[in-house]
Amino acid sequence: MVRFVTPLALAALSATAFAAQKCSTSSQCTDETYPCCSQYGECGTGAYCLGGCDPLSSYSLDSCAPMPVCEEKTYTWENLDNAVSQDKYLGNASKADWTYSGKPKTEDGNLIMTMPKNSVGTLFANNHYIWYGKISGKIKSSRGKGVVTAFILLSDVKDEIDYEWVGADLTNVQTNYYWQGVLDWHNSGNISVDGGDTFNDWHTYEIDWTPEKVDWIVDGSVQRTLKKADTYNETSKQYQFPQTPSRLQMSLWPAGQASNAQGTIDWAGGAIDWNSEDIQSKGYDYATVGEVSVKCYDAPSDVKKTGDKSYLYTNSAAMESDVAITGNDTVLGSLGATGLDMDLGANTSSTSATTSAANSIPTTNGGSGGMSNSNSSSSADSSSSTGTTTSSGSESTTSSGFSQGTDVTKDNGAASQTEHVLRGSLFAVLVAIVGLVTL
Ligand SMILES: *[C@@H]1O[C@H](CO)[C@@H](O)[C@H](O)[C@H]1NC(C)=O
Ligand SMILES: *[C@@H]1O[C@H](CO)[C@@H](O)[C@H](O)[C@H]1NC(C)=O
Ligand SMILES: *[C@@H]1O[C@H](CO)[C@@H](O)[C@H](O)[C@H]1NC(C)=O
Ligand SMILES: *[C@@H]1O[C@H](CO)[C@@H](O)[C@H](O)[C@H]1NC(C)=O
Ligand SMILES: *[C@@H]1O[C@H](CO)[C@@H](O)[C@H](O)[C@H]1NC(C)=O
Ligand SMILES: *[C@@H]1O[C@H](CO)[C@@H](O)[C@H](O)[C@H]1NC(C)=O
Protein backbone atom coordinates (compact mmCIF):
# COMPACT_ATOMS: atom_id res chain seq x y z
CA MET A 1 0.00 0.00 0.00
CA VAL A 2 1.21 3.42 -0.74
CA ARG A 3 2.11 5.64 2.05
CA PHE A 4 2.16 9.28 1.37
CA VAL A 5 4.94 10.88 3.18
CA THR A 6 4.46 14.47 3.86
CA PRO A 7 6.83 16.28 6.04
CA LEU A 8 5.21 18.66 8.34
CA ALA A 9 7.10 21.72 9.22
CA LEU A 10 5.18 24.24 11.09
CA ALA A 11 6.80 27.50 11.69
CA ALA A 12 6.85 28.46 15.26
CA LEU A 13 5.36 31.72 14.32
CA SER A 14 2.86 31.57 16.99
CA ALA A 15 3.60 29.96 20.26
CA THR A 16 1.19 27.20 19.56
CA ALA A 17 2.15 25.58 16.35
CA PHE A 18 -0.42 23.05 15.35
CA ALA A 19 0.82 19.63 14.46
CA ALA A 20 -1.38 18.20 11.78
CA GLN A 21 -2.39 14.62 12.03
CA LYS A 22 -1.09 12.40 9.25
CA CYS A 23 -3.56 10.25 7.41
CA SER A 24 -3.73 7.37 5.00
CA THR A 25 -6.21 4.71 3.99
CA SER A 26 -5.06 2.63 6.92
CA SER A 27 -5.10 5.53 9.34
CA GLN A 28 -7.93 7.95 8.78
CA CYS A 29 -8.26 11.40 10.28
CA THR A 30 -9.77 10.95 13.71
CA ASP A 31 -10.66 14.49 14.69
CA GLU A 32 -13.99 15.60 13.34
CA THR A 33 -12.80 19.19 13.48
CA TYR A 34 -10.00 18.42 10.99
CA PRO A 35 -11.62 15.63 9.03
CA CYS A 36 -10.15 15.99 5.56
CA CYS A 37 -7.11 14.08 4.40
CA SER A 38 -5.32 16.19 1.81
CA GLN A 39 -3.60 14.80 -1.26
CA TYR A 40 -0.42 14.98 0.78
CA GLY A 41 -1.66 12.97 3.70
CA GLU A 42 -2.46 15.52 6.37
CA CYS A 43 -5.71 16.23 8.15
CA GLY A 44 -7.27 19.64 7.95
CA THR A 45 -10.13 21.79 6.73
CA GLY A 46 -10.77 24.16 3.86
CA ALA A 47 -8.40 23.46 0.99
CA TYR A 48 -7.67 20.09 2.55
CA CYS A 49 -11.27 19.16 1.76
CA LEU A 50 -11.09 20.23 -1.87
CA GLY A 51 -9.18 18.89 -4.85
CA GLY A 52 -7.18 15.85 -3.85
CA CYS A 53 -8.96 15.28 -0.55
CA ASP A 54 -8.96 11.51 -0.09
CA PRO A 55 -12.34 10.28 1.18
CA LEU A 56 -10.89 6.89 2.10
CA SER A 57 -8.32 8.47 4.41
CA SER A 58 -10.59 11.14 5.83
CA TYR A 59 -12.72 11.03 8.96
CA SER A 60 -15.71 9.86 6.94
CA LEU A 61 -16.65 9.37 3.32
CA ASP A 62 -18.44 12.73 3.25
CA SER A 63 -15.67 14.78 4.86
CA CYS A 64 -14.31 15.94 1.53
CA ALA A 65 -16.36 18.47 -0.40
CA PRO A 66 -18.28 17.19 -3.43
CA MET A 67 -16.26 17.29 -6.65
CA PRO A 68 -17.23 19.75 -9.41
CA VAL A 69 -18.33 17.88 -12.55
CA CYS A 70 -16.51 17.80 -15.84
CA GLU A 71 -16.54 20.91 -17.94
CA GLU A 72 -15.63 20.87 -21.57
CA LYS A 73 -13.22 23.68 -22.20
CA THR A 74 -10.16 24.82 -24.10
CA TYR A 75 -7.57 26.74 -22.13
CA THR A 76 -5.17 29.29 -23.53
CA TRP A 77 -2.79 31.44 -21.59
CA GLU A 78 -3.08 35.14 -22.29
CA ASN A 79 -3.05 35.63 -18.52
CA LEU A 80 -3.64 33.75 -15.30
CA ASP A 81 -7.06 35.24 -14.60
CA ASN A 82 -8.68 31.83 -14.38
CA ALA A 83 -6.19 30.52 -11.85
CA VAL A 84 -5.89 31.11 -8.11
CA SER A 85 -3.23 30.12 -5.68
CA GLN A 86 -3.97 26.97 -3.76
CA ASP A 87 -4.72 28.70 -0.50
CA LYS A 88 -7.33 31.05 -1.98
CA TYR A 89 -9.64 28.54 -3.60
CA LEU A 90 -12.86 27.55 -1.83
CA GLY A 91 -14.32 25.11 -4.31
CA ASN A 92 -16.08 27.32 -6.84
CA ALA A 93 -14.68 25.94 -10.08
CA SER A 94 -16.81 28.37 -12.09
CA LYS A 95 -14.80 31.18 -10.59
CA ALA A 96 -11.37 29.62 -11.05
CA ASP A 97 -10.63 26.79 -13.44
CA TRP A 98 -7.21 26.17 -11.93
CA THR A 99 -5.43 26.28 -8.63
CA TYR A 100 -1.69 26.46 -8.49
CA SER A 101 1.30 26.49 -6.26
CA GLY A 102 4.74 27.70 -7.15
CA LYS A 103 5.47 30.46 -9.61
CA PRO A 104 3.69 30.04 -12.89
CA LYS A 105 3.66 32.84 -15.44
CA THR A 106 2.47 33.47 -18.95
CA GLU A 107 4.59 34.42 -21.91
CA ASP A 108 3.65 34.69 -25.58
CA GLY A 109 0.31 33.06 -24.92
CA ASN A 110 1.83 30.08 -23.17
CA LEU A 111 1.86 28.97 -19.58
CA ILE A 112 5.38 28.72 -18.18
CA MET A 113 5.72 26.43 -15.20
CA THR A 114 8.91 27.60 -13.53
CA MET A 115 11.29 26.08 -11.07
CA PRO A 116 13.74 28.63 -9.70
CA LYS A 117 16.92 27.48 -8.02
CA ASN A 118 16.26 25.43 -4.89
CA SER A 119 12.52 25.57 -5.30
CA VAL A 120 10.07 22.74 -5.66
CA GLY A 121 8.65 23.91 -8.94
CA THR A 122 5.08 24.55 -9.98
CA LEU A 123 1.83 22.65 -9.85
CA PHE A 124 -1.20 23.56 -11.90
CA ALA A 125 -4.34 21.58 -11.08
CA ASN A 126 -7.68 21.84 -12.82
CA ASN A 127 -10.63 22.30 -10.50
CA HIS A 128 -13.19 20.50 -12.67
CA TYR A 129 -13.08 16.77 -12.25
CA ILE A 130 -13.19 14.56 -15.31
CA TRP A 131 -15.05 11.27 -15.21
CA TYR A 132 -13.99 9.88 -18.52
CA GLY A 133 -12.98 12.23 -21.26
CA LYS A 134 -10.14 13.28 -23.46
CA ILE A 135 -7.47 15.71 -22.38
CA SER A 136 -5.00 17.22 -24.78
CA GLY A 137 -1.98 19.36 -24.04
CA LYS A 138 0.51 21.05 -26.32
CA ILE A 139 3.62 20.80 -24.25
CA LYS A 140 7.34 21.45 -24.30
CA SER A 141 8.92 19.61 -21.41
CA SER A 142 11.64 20.92 -19.19
CA ARG A 143 15.17 19.59 -19.57
CA GLY A 144 18.14 18.58 -17.49
CA LYS A 145 18.99 15.83 -15.09
CA GLY A 146 16.66 15.51 -12.16
CA VAL A 147 13.94 17.71 -13.62
CA VAL A 148 10.55 16.09 -14.22
CA THR A 149 7.56 17.49 -16.07
CA ALA A 150 4.17 15.85 -15.61
CA PHE A 151 0.75 15.91 -17.28
CA ILE A 152 -1.58 13.55 -15.46
CA LEU A 153 -5.08 12.65 -14.41
CA LEU A 154 -5.32 11.93 -10.71
CA SER A 155 -8.37 10.96 -8.69
CA ASP A 156 -8.91 11.58 -5.00
CA VAL A 157 -8.60 7.86 -4.30
CA LYS A 158 -5.37 7.76 -6.31
CA ASP A 159 -6.44 6.36 -9.61
CA GLU A 160 -3.95 7.89 -11.98
CA ILE A 161 -3.06 8.13 -15.66
CA ASP A 162 0.28 9.75 -16.44
CA TYR A 163 2.61 11.32 -18.89
CA GLU A 164 5.98 12.18 -17.38
CA TRP A 165 9.06 13.64 -18.97
CA VAL A 166 12.41 13.06 -17.37
CA GLY A 167 14.64 15.96 -18.34
CA ALA A 168 17.64 13.72 -18.91
CA ASP A 169 15.87 12.00 -21.80
CA LEU A 170 14.30 14.32 -24.33
CA THR A 171 13.45 11.60 -26.82
CA ASN A 172 10.88 9.72 -24.74
CA VAL A 173 7.83 10.41 -22.66
CA GLN A 174 7.03 7.94 -19.93
CA THR A 175 3.48 6.73 -19.41
CA ASN A 176 1.97 5.05 -16.42
CA TYR A 177 -1.27 4.27 -14.62
CA TYR A 178 -2.35 3.33 -11.13
CA TRP A 179 -5.48 2.04 -9.51
CA GLN A 180 -6.19 3.27 -5.99
CA GLY A 181 -2.55 4.01 -5.43
CA VAL A 182 -1.52 0.39 -5.62
CA LEU A 183 2.01 0.23 -6.81
CA ASP A 184 2.73 -2.02 -9.68
CA TRP A 185 5.97 -1.40 -11.41
CA HIS A 186 4.94 -3.21 -14.52
CA ASN A 187 2.56 -0.50 -15.54
CA SER A 188 4.98 2.03 -16.94
CA GLY A 189 5.86 2.34 -20.57
CA ASN A 190 7.97 4.67 -22.68
CA ILE A 191 6.79 6.32 -25.83
CA SER A 192 9.46 7.47 -28.21
CA VAL A 193 8.64 10.97 -29.41
CA ASP A 194 9.50 11.43 -33.06
CA GLY A 195 10.48 14.56 -34.81
CA GLY A 196 12.53 16.62 -32.46
CA ASP A 197 13.19 16.64 -28.76
CA THR A 198 10.54 17.20 -26.14
CA PHE A 199 12.10 20.40 -24.82
CA ASN A 200 12.59 22.34 -28.04
CA ASP A 201 9.62 21.15 -30.00
CA TRP A 202 5.91 21.28 -29.48
CA HIS A 203 4.14 17.98 -29.35
CA THR A 204 0.54 17.22 -28.51
CA TYR A 205 -0.02 14.69 -25.76
CA GLU A 206 -3.46 13.26 -25.19
CA ILE A 207 -5.12 10.89 -22.80
CA ASP A 208 -8.33 9.37 -24.14
CA TRP A 209 -10.07 7.78 -21.18
CA THR A 210 -13.29 5.82 -21.49
CA PRO A 211 -14.89 3.26 -19.16
CA GLU A 212 -13.32 0.55 -21.34
CA LYS A 213 -9.81 1.77 -22.08
CA VAL A 214 -7.11 4.41 -21.95
CA ASP A 215 -5.24 5.57 -25.04
CA TRP A 216 -2.07 7.59 -24.83
CA ILE A 217 -1.88 9.58 -28.05
CA VAL A 218 1.15 11.59 -29.16
CA ASP A 219 0.85 13.93 -32.12
CA GLY A 220 -2.37 12.27 -33.15
CA SER A 221 -1.12 8.74 -33.14
CA VAL A 222 -2.18 6.17 -30.55
CA GLN A 223 1.03 4.96 -28.93
CA ARG A 224 -0.26 2.93 -26.04
CA THR A 225 -3.59 1.41 -25.06
CA LEU A 226 -4.68 0.02 -21.73
CA LYS A 227 -7.82 -2.08 -21.84
CA LYS A 228 -9.92 -2.34 -18.72
CA ALA A 229 -10.49 -5.99 -19.51
CA ASP A 230 -6.76 -6.60 -19.12
CA THR A 231 -6.67 -5.18 -15.60
CA TYR A 232 -8.96 -7.75 -14.01
CA ASN A 233 -7.69 -9.25 -10.78
CA GLU A 234 -8.93 -12.82 -10.47
CA THR A 235 -8.31 -12.87 -6.75
CA SER A 236 -10.12 -9.71 -5.78
CA LYS A 237 -12.60 -9.90 -8.68
CA GLN A 238 -11.93 -6.27 -9.40
CA TYR A 239 -10.79 -4.30 -12.38
CA GLN A 240 -7.67 -2.48 -11.30
CA PHE A 241 -8.35 0.22 -13.81
CA PRO A 242 -8.47 4.01 -13.26
CA GLN A 243 -12.21 4.59 -12.94
CA THR A 244 -12.96 7.47 -10.58
CA PRO A 245 -13.36 11.23 -11.19
CA SER A 246 -9.93 12.74 -11.71
CA ARG A 247 -8.33 16.12 -12.01
CA LEU A 248 -5.89 17.19 -14.66
CA GLN A 249 -2.61 18.16 -13.02
CA MET A 250 0.38 19.67 -14.74
CA SER A 251 3.62 20.11 -12.87
CA LEU A 252 7.33 20.63 -12.87
CA TRP A 253 9.28 19.28 -9.94
CA PRO A 254 12.85 18.54 -8.82
CA ALA A 255 12.86 14.77 -8.59
CA GLY A 256 16.64 14.87 -8.56
CA GLN A 257 16.98 17.07 -5.53
CA ALA A 258 19.52 15.83 -3.03
CA SER A 259 17.06 15.29 -0.20
CA ASN A 260 15.06 12.81 -2.23
CA ALA A 261 15.38 9.06 -2.08
CA GLN A 262 18.20 7.69 -4.20
CA GLY A 263 15.72 5.71 -6.27
CA THR A 264 13.89 8.89 -7.17
CA ILE A 265 17.10 10.66 -8.09
CA ASP A 266 18.26 7.76 -10.25
CA TRP A 267 14.94 7.56 -12.04
CA ALA A 268 15.15 11.27 -12.73
CA GLY A 269 18.47 10.82 -14.45
CA GLY A 270 20.63 12.04 -11.59
CA ALA A 271 21.01 14.92 -9.18
CA ILE A 272 19.48 18.16 -10.28
CA ASP A 273 21.83 20.88 -11.43
CA TRP A 274 20.74 24.10 -9.79
CA ASN A 275 23.12 25.96 -12.07
CA SER A 276 21.63 24.57 -15.24
CA GLU A 277 21.80 26.65 -18.39
CA ASP A 278 18.14 27.58 -18.02
CA ILE A 279 18.61 28.70 -14.45
CA GLN A 280 21.60 30.76 -15.50
CA SER A 281 19.93 32.36 -18.47
CA LYS A 282 16.34 32.72 -17.25
CA GLY A 283 16.50 32.22 -13.53
CA TYR A 284 14.58 28.98 -13.56
CA ASP A 285 14.08 25.63 -15.19
CA TYR A 286 10.77 25.58 -16.98
CA ALA A 287 8.20 23.66 -18.93
CA THR A 288 6.01 25.37 -21.50
CA VAL A 289 2.32 24.62 -21.90
CA GLY A 290 0.31 25.76 -24.89
CA GLU A 291 -3.33 25.06 -25.53
CA VAL A 292 -4.91 22.52 -23.23
CA SER A 293 -8.34 21.10 -23.90
CA VAL A 294 -10.75 18.91 -22.03
CA LYS A 295 -13.55 16.95 -23.63
CA CYS A 296 -16.06 15.27 -21.31
CA TYR A 297 -17.49 11.86 -22.01
CA ASP A 298 -20.77 10.52 -20.67
CA ALA A 299 -20.72 8.89 -17.29
CA PRO A 300 -21.46 5.16 -17.22
CA SER A 301 -25.08 4.57 -18.21
CA ASP A 302 -26.06 2.98 -14.91
CA VAL A 303 -24.74 5.83 -12.79
CA LYS A 304 -26.87 7.08 -9.94
CA LYS A 305 -27.82 10.59 -10.93
CA THR A 306 -29.66 13.07 -8.76
CA GLY A 307 -28.29 16.30 -10.17
CA ASP A 308 -25.60 17.68 -12.40
CA LYS A 309 -23.27 19.69 -10.21
CA SER A 310 -20.94 17.30 -8.49
CA TYR A 311 -19.55 13.81 -8.15
CA LEU A 312 -19.75 12.06 -4.80
CA TYR A 313 -18.40 8.79 -3.48
CA THR A 314 -21.22 6.68 -2.11
CA ASN A 315 -19.20 3.74 -0.90
CA SER A 316 -15.69 3.24 0.35
CA ALA A 317 -14.89 0.59 -2.22
CA ALA A 318 -14.40 3.63 -4.45
CA MET A 319 -14.98 1.82 -7.70
CA GLU A 320 -16.84 3.19 -10.69
CA SER A 321 -20.21 2.08 -9.33
CA ASP A 322 -19.52 3.89 -6.07
CA VAL A 323 -19.67 7.33 -7.63
CA ALA A 324 -22.89 9.32 -8.01
CA ILE A 325 -23.64 12.53 -9.85
CA THR A 326 -25.49 14.89 -7.55
CA GLY A 327 -26.81 18.37 -7.16
CA ASN A 328 -24.72 18.97 -4.06
CA ASP A 329 -22.86 22.22 -3.94
CA THR A 330 -19.06 22.20 -4.06
CA VAL A 331 -18.24 25.51 -2.42
CA LEU A 332 -17.00 25.87 1.13
CA GLY A 333 -17.99 28.82 3.28
CA SER A 334 -14.48 29.40 4.57
CA LEU A 335 -11.08 27.85 5.04
CA GLY A 336 -12.44 26.34 8.21
CA ALA A 337 -15.34 24.59 6.52
CA THR A 338 -15.43 20.92 5.51
CA GLY A 339 -17.71 18.52 3.68
CA LEU A 340 -19.35 17.89 7.05
CA ASP A 341 -20.27 21.54 7.49
CA MET A 342 -19.81 23.35 4.25
CA ASP A 343 -21.16 26.68 5.43
CA LEU A 344 -19.00 27.00 8.49
CA GLY A 345 -17.60 30.49 8.72
CA ALA A 346 -19.30 31.51 5.52
CA ASN A 347 -19.66 35.13 6.30
CA THR A 348 -16.86 35.79 8.69
CA SER A 349 -13.62 34.54 7.29
CA SER A 350 -13.30 35.36 3.68
CA THR A 351 -11.20 38.39 4.25
CA SER A 352 -9.17 37.42 7.21
CA ALA A 353 -8.86 33.73 7.55
CA THR A 354 -5.37 34.04 8.82
CA THR A 355 -5.78 36.79 11.29
CA SER A 356 -8.92 36.19 13.20
CA ALA A 357 -8.38 35.12 16.72
CA ALA A 358 -10.90 33.91 19.24
CA ASN A 359 -12.85 32.36 16.50
CA SER A 360 -14.40 28.97 16.52
CA ILE A 361 -13.52 28.25 12.95
CA PRO A 362 -10.51 26.02 12.68
CA THR A 363 -8.24 28.05 10.52
CA THR A 364 -5.05 26.38 11.47
CA ASN A 365 -4.33 23.73 8.95
CA GLY A 366 -7.08 24.99 6.83
CA GLY A 367 -5.38 27.09 4.31
CA SER A 368 -3.30 25.35 1.84
CA GLY A 369 -4.46 21.83 1.47
CA GLY A 370 -1.02 20.65 2.20
CA MET A 371 0.30 22.45 -0.77
CA SER A 372 2.41 25.45 -1.15
CA ASN A 373 1.17 28.94 -1.25
CA SER A 374 1.90 31.25 -4.08
CA ASN A 375 5.15 32.43 -2.63
CA SER A 376 6.35 29.10 -1.53
CA SER A 377 8.82 28.33 -4.20
CA SER A 378 10.93 31.32 -3.51
CA SER A 379 13.81 29.76 -1.74
CA ALA A 380 14.66 26.75 0.19
CA ASP A 381 18.04 27.43 1.56
CA SER A 382 17.20 28.25 5.11
CA SER A 383 16.36 24.80 6.14
CA SER A 384 14.99 24.40 9.59
CA SER A 385 13.82 20.84 9.59
CA THR A 386 11.29 21.03 12.31
CA GLY A 387 9.60 17.77 12.61
CA THR A 388 10.47 16.49 9.23
CA THR A 389 11.83 13.10 9.37
CA THR A 390 10.82 10.64 6.82
CA SER A 391 12.66 7.63 5.70
CA SER A 392 13.11 9.06 2.29
CA GLY A 393 14.48 12.30 3.56
CA SER A 394 12.92 15.64 3.21
CA GLU A 395 13.59 19.23 3.64
CA SER A 396 11.74 22.02 5.17
CA THR A 397 12.17 25.67 5.23
CA THR A 398 10.71 28.63 6.86
CA SER A 399 10.28 31.90 5.19
CA SER A 400 8.22 34.99 5.45
CA GLY A 401 5.62 33.68 7.74
CA PHE A 402 5.02 30.44 5.98
CA SER A 403 6.44 27.21 6.91
CA GLN A 404 7.05 24.89 4.13
CA GLY A 405 8.15 21.37 4.02
CA THR A 406 9.54 20.17 0.83
CA ASP A 407 8.81 16.73 -0.28
CA VAL A 408 8.83 15.67 -3.79
CA THR A 409 9.33 12.08 -3.07
CA LYS A 410 7.23 9.58 -1.48
CA ASP A 411 8.09 6.70 0.69
CA ASN A 412 6.31 3.61 -0.28
CA GLY A 413 8.55 1.16 1.43
CA ALA A 414 9.53 -0.15 -1.93
CA ALA A 415 11.63 2.61 -3.30
CA SER A 416 14.75 0.74 -2.47
CA GLN A 417 13.56 -2.32 -4.29
CA THR A 418 12.64 -0.66 -7.46
CA GLU A 419 13.13 2.63 -9.07
CA HIS A 420 10.00 2.34 -11.06
CA VAL A 421 7.62 2.84 -8.25
CA LEU A 422 8.03 6.52 -8.43
CA ARG A 423 4.96 8.50 -8.59
CA GLY A 424 6.46 11.83 -8.27
CA SER A 425 3.56 13.38 -10.00
CA LEU A 426 1.61 12.90 -6.83
CA PHE A 427 4.24 14.76 -4.98
CA ALA A 428 4.97 17.35 -7.48
CA VAL A 429 4.65 20.04 -4.96
CA LEU A 430 5.86 20.73 -1.57
CA VAL A 431 3.86 21.07 1.47
CA ALA A 432 3.36 24.41 2.94
CA ILE A 433 1.25 24.90 5.91
CA VAL A 434 0.07 28.33 6.66
CA GLY A 435 0.81 27.97 10.29
CA LEU A 436 -0.15 31.41 11.32
CA VAL A 437 -3.21 31.00 13.32
CA THR A 438 -4.15 29.72 16.64
CA LEU A 439 -7.59 29.11 17.88
C1 LIG B 1 -25.70 16.13 -0.46
O1 LIG B 1 -26.92 16.83 -0.36
C2 LIG B 1 -27.90 16.14 0.38
C3 LIG B 1 -29.19 16.93 0.24
O2 LIG B 1 -28.97 18.27 0.51
C4 LIG B 1 -27.43 16.01 1.82
O3 LIG B 1 -28.40 15.34 2.60
C5 LIG B 1 -26.13 15.25 1.84
O4 LIG B 1 -25.62 15.21 3.16
C6 LIG B 1 -25.12 15.88 0.92
N1 LIG B 1 -23.97 15.01 0.87
C7 LIG B 1 -22.74 15.46 0.99
C8 LIG B 1 -21.66 14.44 0.98
O5 LIG B 1 -22.46 16.63 1.07
C1 LIG C 1 -19.37 30.64 -8.14
O1 LIG C 1 -18.84 31.65 -8.95
C2 LIG C 1 -19.72 32.10 -9.96
C3 LIG C 1 -18.93 33.01 -10.88
O2 LIG C 1 -18.24 33.97 -10.15
C4 LIG C 1 -20.91 32.76 -9.29
O3 LIG C 1 -21.81 33.23 -10.27
C5 LIG C 1 -21.60 31.75 -8.39
O4 LIG C 1 -22.62 32.37 -7.66
C6 LIG C 1 -20.61 31.15 -7.39
N1 LIG C 1 -21.25 30.05 -6.69
C7 LIG C 1 -21.22 29.93 -5.38
C8 LIG C 1 -21.95 28.79 -4.81
O5 LIG C 1 -20.59 30.69 -4.67
C1 LIG D 1 12.06 4.27 -20.07
O1 LIG D 1 13.23 4.99 -20.39
C2 LIG D 1 14.11 5.18 -19.30
C3 LIG D 1 15.25 6.03 -19.77
O2 LIG D 1 14.80 7.28 -20.06
C4 LIG D 1 14.57 3.86 -18.76
O3 LIG D 1 15.37 4.08 -17.62
C5 LIG D 1 13.36 3.03 -18.37
O4 LIG D 1 13.76 1.76 -17.94
C6 LIG D 1 12.39 2.90 -19.52
N1 LIG D 1 11.19 2.26 -19.05
C7 LIG D 1 10.62 1.25 -19.69
C8 LIG D 1 9.38 0.70 -19.09
O5 LIG D 1 11.08 0.81 -20.72
C1 LIG E 1 -5.09 -8.91 -6.72
O1 LIG E 1 -5.88 -8.85 -5.55
C2 LIG E 1 -5.29 -9.45 -4.42
C3 LIG E 1 -6.32 -9.44 -3.30
O2 LIG E 1 -6.77 -8.12 -3.07
C4 LIG E 1 -4.02 -8.73 -4.06
O3 LIG E 1 -3.41 -9.32 -2.94
C5 LIG E 1 -3.07 -8.78 -5.25
O4 LIG E 1 -1.91 -8.02 -4.98
C6 LIG E 1 -3.76 -8.21 -6.49
N1 LIG E 1 -2.89 -8.37 -7.64
C7 LIG E 1 -2.32 -7.32 -8.24
C8 LIG E 1 -1.50 -7.64 -9.44
O5 LIG E 1 -2.46 -6.19 -7.85
C1 LIG F 1 -23.82 35.35 9.03
O1 LIG F 1 -24.79 34.44 8.56
C2 LIG F 1 -25.81 34.22 9.51
C3 LIG F 1 -26.76 33.20 8.93
O2 LIG F 1 -26.16 32.47 7.91
C4 LIG F 1 -26.53 35.52 9.81
O3 LIG F 1 -27.51 35.28 10.81
C5 LIG F 1 -25.53 36.52 10.31
O4 LIG F 1 -26.19 37.75 10.51
C6 LIG F 1 -24.41 36.68 9.32
N1 LIG F 1 -23.42 37.57 9.89
C7 LIG F 1 -22.91 38.56 9.21
C8 LIG F 1 -21.89 39.37 9.90
O5 LIG F 1 -23.23 38.80 8.06
C1 LIG G 1 4.39 37.18 -2.14
O1 LIG G 1 5.39 37.75 -2.93
C2 LIG G 1 5.08 39.07 -3.35
C3 LIG G 1 6.22 39.57 -4.21
O2 LIG G 1 6.83 38.51 -4.86
C4 LIG G 1 4.91 39.96 -2.12
O3 LIG G 1 4.54 41.25 -2.54
C5 LIG G 1 3.83 39.39 -1.24
O4 LIG G 1 3.73 40.13 -0.06
C6 LIG G 1 4.15 37.96 -0.89
N1 LIG G 1 3.04 37.39 -0.14
C7 LIG G 1 3.22 36.71 0.97
C8 LIG G 1 1.99 36.20 1.60
O5 LIG G 1 4.33 36.46 1.43
Automatic annotation (TrEMBL):
GO-annotated molecular function: endochitinase activity; glycosyltransferase activity
Membership in a protein family: Belongs to the glycosyl hydrolase 16 family. CRH1 subfamily.
EC number, as in UniProt: 3.2.-.-
Upper taxonomic lineage: Eukaryota, Fungi, Dikarya, Ascomycota, Pezizomycotina
Biased composition (Low complexity): 349-406
Listed name of the protein: Crh-like protein
Chief location bin: membrane
Reaction(s) catalysed (UniProt annotation): Random endo-hydrolysis of N-acetyl-beta-D-glucosaminide (1->4)-beta-linkages in chitin and chitodextrins
